[in-house]
Each structure stands twice: as C-alpha cells, then as structure tokens.
C-alpha cells in the first residue's frame, strides 16, 4: 500500500476514533464534537502517525527528485536538438 494512502487512512481513522469517543458525551452539540475531533486528531497525528508521515515524505521526495532529473534530461535533449539545427 502506498505510504500516502496509508497515512491518509490513518488520519481519517484517527478522526473517526476521536469522534466516536466524543459521541456519547451529553450536552455538547454535534458540530462542536466534530470540531473537537478534528483538532484532537490533528494534534494526535503528529505523535501517533509519525512513522507513516515520514514514509510519505520520503515517497514525495523521491518523486520530486525523479521529476527534476527527468526535466533536466528533457531540457538537455531539447537543447541538444536546438544546437544541431
């Protein structure tokens, strides 16, 4: 499974868990419970999903590096074509 998908599912799952924990709390509006769940899951993801986040960052970094290399290769090929004319 892709690290980005795994991290995204982890974030959504963390939100659902926090929302379910807050669900039975009386005297709090549903919107407030969901807002608290968003904020709490945002804070918790820094601690609980650190490994997955680092894997995703590594994957994105590799993709950026590969694209830069491909772009440089294409530019040099195009520059070589221009010099031949």
Helix count, DSSP H or I runs of 4 or more residues: 3
**SSE topology string:** HHH
Number of strands: 0
CA-based gyration radius: 22 Å
- Coarse structural class: mainly alpha
Could you characterize the architecture of this molecule?
The protein is mainly alpha-helical and 85 residues long. 87% of the residues lie in helices and 0% in strands. The protein is built from three helices and no strands. Helix 1 (3-22) packs across helix 2 (30-48). It is rod-shaped, with a radius of gyration of 22 Å. It holds the Pfam family DUF4229. This is DUF4229 domain-containing protein. It comes from Rugosimonospora acidiphila.
Give a summary of the structure in a few sentences:
The protein has 85 residues and is mainly α.
Labels describing this entry:
mainly alpha, 87% helix, 0% strand, rod-shaped, membrane, DUF4229, DUF4229 domain-containing protein, transmembrane helix
């Amino acid at each position: 499974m892709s690290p980005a998908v795994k991290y995204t599912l982890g974030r959504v799952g963390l939100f659902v868990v926090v929302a379910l924990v807050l669900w039975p709390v009386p005297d709090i509006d549903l919107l407030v419970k969901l807002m608290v769940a968003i904020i709490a899951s945002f804070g918790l993801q820094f601690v609980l999903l650190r490994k997955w986040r680092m894997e995703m960052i590594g994957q994105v970094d590799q993709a950026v590096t590969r694209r830069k290399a491909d772009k440089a290769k294409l530019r040099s090929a195009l520059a070589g074509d221009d010099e031949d004319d």
